[in-house]
Design brief:
The complex is a heterodimer.
Chain A (H helix, E strand, L loop, with lengths): L1 E3 L10 H8 L18 E4 L3 E7 L9 E9 L12 E10 L1
Antiparallel strand pairs in A: 1-5, 2-3, 3-4, 4-5
Chain B lengths: L2 H18 L5 E6 L6 H4 L2 H16 L6 H18 L4 E5 L4 E2 L1 H8 L3 H9 L5 E2 L4 E4 H8 L3 H16 L2 H19 L4 H4 L12 H20 L6
Antiparallel strand pairs in B: 1-2, 3-5, 4-5
Helix pairs in contact in B: 1-3, 1-4, 4-7, 4-8, 5-6, 7-8, 9-11
The chains are: A mainly beta, B mainly alpha.
Chain lengths: 95, 228
């Protein structure tokens, strides 16, 4: 897990930019094996942003995804005036 | 031609195109007028976008398949909101809509999982008697980029229109699901053994905690807690 604790102002993740830059490593799994298909997940509100990016099959780790989570402080996230962050979490999950 | 005029020209062309070129899919588009956001209008991002849209206008092919239409629709809506718009809604031809059960089968998920995606922004219309899903939404969910963008737009639209009381009801329902899942009343009890950061998967802990905080803030806004 990578964790960033920032005391200075951080801007919210630009999801569109991230998707554009890293689209080559993302992949969904349609009718995946013996379980449900796996698609990207996005949840956002005034308190947090949480995205699961399913990734292309890794030669060693297999089918995994990246869960990115960021939380906003009491002021919340009200674009275009960005609020400070408390933490950002990145986790890699195996499907 | 000024930036605003140029933007208005391209935007209007796209809106007309979406309404007419995809008439096999789209029955109509309802849209509030935009007062362009000056901050976005004069940003480098917008200038870059304008050239991209000009290029895209020249390359639109028809008849378009569901995924090409879906991508254009989502990109257009994202641009509309960035420009300062606050309401846009598509209506579809009847034969362009499918039942949730059909969508779930095509996607290889259960209807419970499909409902989760619908809650997260996958487009779904209530036709009075039942819910219907436009065909493009099924194709877009399969796309790792546009699946995210579709959910982003859907949640943004919901947040802009949802009254606090409705959001509070949703929060209480989600908290109840966690209470049942963990058999405790509070997240502190459920995760009493852990510091949030030491868990292998703190997703439920963080989400439950955020829901409680958000409900407190909504009540504060409504003045409920201030009266105590």
């Amino acid at each position: 897990m990578t964790e960033i604790n920032a005391t200075s102002l951080l801007y919210p993740a630009d999801i569109q930019e991230i998707l554009e830059e890293f689209q080559d490593i993302f992949q969904t799994y349609d009718h995946f094996s013996d379980r449900e298909s796996i698609y990207a997940n996005y949840r956002s509100d005034a308190k947090r942003l949480e995205v699961v990016f399913p990734l292309k099959e890794h030669p060693i780790h297999g089918n995994t995804g990246l869960r990115a989570y960021e939380k906003y402080n009491e002021a919340g996230f009200h674009p275009p005036a960005y609020a400070a962050y408390s933490r950002k979490h990145l986790r890699r999950h195996r499907f | 031609m000024s930036l605003a005029m140029g933007t208005d020209y391209i935007f209007s062309k796209l809106l007309a195109g979406l309404s007419t070129l995809f008439s096999d899919k789209v029955a109509g588009i309802t849209i509030h007028d935009i007062s362009f956001s000056p901050e976005y209008l004069f940003s480098p991002k917008h200038k870059k976008n304008l050239f991209k849209w000009l290029d895209r206008l020249n390359k639109i092919e028809w008849p378009a398949d569901d995924i090409d239409f879906g991508k254009l629709k989502i990109d257009f809506e994202l641009w509309y909101y960035e420009l300062g718009g606050d309401f846009i809604e598509f209506s579809y031809q009847k034969n362009y809509l499918i039942k949730p059960s059909e969508a779930a089968e095509q996607l290889g998920v259960s209807t419970v999982t499909l409902n989760k995606y619908i809650k997260q922004g996958m487009e779904c219309l209530n036709n009075g008697s039942q819910n219907k899903i436009p065909k493009y939404a099924v194709e877009l969910l399969r796309d790792p980029v546009y699946g995210v963008l579709m959910q982003m737009i859907g949640q943004k639209k919901k947040r802009m229109q949802q009254p606090p009381s409705e959001r509070l009801g949703e929060i209480y329902k989600e908290i109840a699901e966690y209470q049942i899942k963990y058999g405790t009343e509070t997240y502190q009890e459920a995760f009493s053994e852990y510091d949030g950061d030491e868990m292998d998967d703190p997703t439920d802990y963080n989400h439950w905690k955020d829901l409680v905080e958000e409900s407190t803030e909504i009540l504060k806004m409504a003045g409920g807690i201030a009266r105590k």
